[in-house]
């Protein structure tokens, strides 16, 4: 975080000495040059004790989270000051009046909303992706104040000026192997009532320019918004890198060097004479709700599944000589990408030839993390006759719990309000899976404050997005199209309890007949999120090898399903 300048220290003293006022108002001023174009949005007032990070980057599910209060802004007029409503909902402390006095770093932040007049007749106000992947703290055009240190006293008046704006992102440049494309989607543009785009980073095979008559299989690597194609590096690791950088997630030092070495090793494999030749794509499909669309059609997000499968992928195959047949396309990914890989295979069974779903988001809503949406009455509490217990939301490999489902949802409520606008995990699941509510926003699966589940919404989720249920319901017609294509991998100590839904799905798959599903389900012993199927390597290594780790299984599938004209040795199809 930037150093506190002298004038901020003066403000600190001024705040501490301000005379008490009746309502303890907090006033937000906006610099004149940042007022133009601001109409609607979400004001976040954030307080933190962390001296190392800005408050906007300190909000989390962990106990060390910053404090945030959120309120909607509507029809802002230039020159207006904004008074924070002290009744605004907060996380982790709900009420402003309960904040203890003391020293804090304070920051005001405005997430700008745009108005969408959708083709379903609803008008909604949402935050639009600006090329960064729908991450509110980094969205170009969003405005904020510099962090200010102050001593909070009961009844003190506070005025803070928003005078910073997040700059535009830089677009990645094409290289010999990596190309970047962006197309307007007619399907999505019609739904949203404005031009909407899909993008992709495309990794081309060695010899692409030298062999203009060769056509290639397509590997779709699903996952969160990629700023560029990851894990591919044409030069050795930076020699100045030391072993002192620490990865808190994996508990090891020198992880940046490991990542660069793995990326360089992949390049050497990719260009070696005996390596298979194929195309890999990572898709950009950020939207007003999240950093990706979950790659399916949705009442709230629009027809992203059709747009990706029938607009984007054919365009890529035409531009870069993909074979363009269902037998030549494969899907893989982890977490969000794992759910997408399986969902796309289920919903478009003829268009793809295999899905490798690692640590997928809940694929059976009887285990929607730790919630059974069809039998539980409350998402936050397990209720008994004489007591109720909070449901855990996050754990480590030893089962130690660090966050509850309730807290994770209340954080989203403070950031985004009641309309799934936080850009976070439970809100995007709700936006993708739910029917549209009367107000045009996703109909809540549960009351965000109390956790009470709406069984009618749960029924809608089951019929349209519960992947295990849909496969079981439609196995007579889906089974012949999915046989040999479904592969699922998950650690048995997944941090988000995602293995529970995999167990239930495996129970169904192993009972399938006419045909038997003929795929694979495997678990990593004591492995956390996101174990992806390699029992011999730790996850911090295997997660860097998605583009190579399933190739043997894909090769077997191609031998079973590709036409005789397909070259099994180098995976190319020659056309004159």
UniProtKB/TrEMBL annotation:
<dbReference type="InterPro" id="IPR029058">
    <property type="entry name" value="AB_hydrolase_fold"/>
</dbReference>
<dbReference type="InterPro" id="IPR000801">
    <property type="entry name" value="Esterase-like"/>
</dbReference>
<dbReference type="InterPro" id="IPR050583">
    <property type="entry name" value="Mycobacterial_A85_antigen"/>
</dbReference>
<protein>
    <submittedName>
        <fullName>Putative esterase</fullName>
    </submittedName>
</protein>
<dbReference type="Pfam" id="PF00756">
    <property type="entry name" value="Esterase"/>
</dbReference>
